[in-house]
Write a structure and sequence with these properties.
Elements: H1 3-22, H2 28-46, H3 59-85
Length: about 90
């Protein structure tokens, strides 16, 4: 398998997933924020700490990471296409 096909196979799913988070399609970033908060609360409860749960990543930060991943993956897909077609 050539390098271009490998980069295309790896880059395309990450470009779609990063764009999904960056554009907050169907509330993806917000749901990840709620999921993270619920997991933090469960972890603190299991440790015996009944205080408020700390949040580590907001929906805005998640969207920013999604934008970076989407942009880098799109660049990887473009490099793969140049390799395959050139």
């Amino acid at each position: 398998m050539s390098v271009g096909a490998f980069l295309l196979a790896i880059g395309l799913p990450f470009a779609i997933g990063g764009g999904w988070l960056a554009l907050n399609v169907r509330g993806a970033a917000a749901s990840l924020e709620r999921w993270s908060a619920a997991n933090a609360a469960l972890r603190m409860q299991a440790q015996g700490d009944l205080g408020p749960a700390r949040t580590y990543m907001s929906a805005g930060v998640c969207r920013a990471f999604g934008a970076v991943i989407g942009a880098a993956s799109t660049l990887m897909v473009l490099v793969a296409l140049v390799e395959l077609l050139g």
